[in-house]
User: Fold this.
Amino acid sequence: MKILLMGNPNVGKSAIFSRLTGVHAIVSNYPGTTVGYIHGFMKLEGETAEVIDVPGTYTLEPTSEAERIASQMLETGDIVINVVNATNLERNLYLTLQLLERNIPVIVALNIWDDTKHRGIHIDLGKLEELLGVPVVPTIGVTGQGIKELVESIPRATSPQIPPQSRDERWATIGNIIDQVQRITHRHHTWLERLEDASVKPLTGVIIALAVLAVTFLVVRFISESLISYVLDPLFNSLWAPVILRLSDLLGGSEFLHDIIIGKIAGGEINFVESFGLLTTGLYVPLAMVLPYIVSFYLVLGVLEDAGYLPRLAVLMDTIMHRLGLHGYAIIPTMLGLGCNVPAILATRILESKRERFIAATLISIAIPCASLQAMIFGLVGQYGGQYVAIVYGTLFIAWVILGIIFNRMVRGFSPELLIEMPPYRLPRWRTSLQKLWFRVYGFLAEAIPIILGAVLITNILYIFGVFNAIANFTAPVVTGLFGLPKEAVTALVIGFLRKDVALGMLAPLVLTAKQLVVGSVVLAMFFPCIATFVVLVRELGVIGMLKSAGIMITAALITGGILNLIL
Amino acid sequence: MSDGKLITLRQIQAGQSGVVAYIEGGHGLVNRLNALGIRPGKRITKVSSMLMHGPVTIQLDSTQVAIGFGMANKIIVKLD
Assistant:
């Protein structure tokens, strides 16, 4: 049996999905959190049923790509759990009525039920059930309340197959239902609602946005720096280093193995960044340099997502984003890209047109450094002083703006306008936020560490067989002539295709000047996406789109690197 | 105030309320707005508009919707 979870965007389908199946789905407080196909399984009366978390849709007459996918999925289901936002019954019932017209059993989960009380909304459940002709179960997805009752009611799902109505007839029917089941008592604005309004007003909105960005930056830096200085560096230096030194003695005879596993040790001291062995750099980079930024960035991003701030940032940025051929909502994939470009490029599906998706995905790949790369930029470039880090970020930002302006003129197609529902502000629930954080951190550990270890291994092997020397001599005119870097720096660009964090680490032993490190960081960030990003780019843009995108990346990196080398 | 005057959503002042009179647009726009509950006869209140042709935010029932500048120009509202 196939159970579909369907409903308007941001009504809590993913929260209910996680409760039903135990499969973790990313839950956030903005429309369009779920863009792909997520499924899981649940036990129902002794049998296994498949549950599908369908992307949110306002109507079955598709008005966007996500809605088209949603109405296609409807054809394949056996039962629909229609998740309805109890605090916005009228609008949500439009989809419900459309579902009731179809030949498929429906059950309504009246979600966000807890919010109705303090919003002064009273709903007569019995009456609603009677008028709709299908079971209605109040639920609170994020706490799990009502989920048991929902599951128990699934067998009662029925298909009333009401006669199809026109748009106006449906609204008339809804008006009739609302009159009979819903009563709203007056109440005063809460401070969260005042903050909602202030966030989208020109003056207060900009002040709030600047404050949010400043706090984000400070908190991310504070948490990650503290983790590095007080937890991870001491762990590596006082606990792990002695183990490695002992191992180094044991391996002493075999140079080949020693190089690969431990790398180079100079004068009995281990430099975890430069030694470049599997158990030294291969563990230190992901765990002690990148992980702290991953944890702190996703903690803050999760809070912003769950509070419902990101769509408001979209409203504020809309005018600027239009100059870049996008609209405000593109700021959400962009913000996700500061964590990892892979989910960011998937999230460009919330944009309506092909043109926007191409522009957004290409801009993210070129100019939005992921958390791993940023961690290394702070770790390595930061040693020379904050101003150099600022130059790296400033250059990427300028590249983002200039490329966007060029795309806006050159890329054909149309860019639609912003039209989004603003989620209410909610105080994040720590349990959900921490769960999401763990999910993302685990994803990083599981996906990044094998690739990082692979990258270290390949690097050593390529060095040992002299392949890197051959490449370095071949590319020297560009690397040395154009970028002003030592010719060996090209190895970082090659390994950058695997992981950009390790790649930037490869620049460390080259004893670069601050200026060279800035050029290297910027070129590495822009030149080409890492393999994981490359794969989703091909999938989302197609091979032709990816080739165009890659051509732009390489050109932009060559020009930017060259200019930086000239003016710094 | 201007009783019953027809005016675009763009021109309304923040804080003013009215009822959507009609939508001056093609089928696609009417459909998209309809999906969000913005349809003739619906009561709305303007919350804000951003400067320099930025989006307009409106309140309808218990939700807020942000609408691009061009679209907001096509939504005709009958002021209270």
Remarks:
- Chain B has one domain: 6-79.
- Helices of chain B lie at 27-35, 69-72.
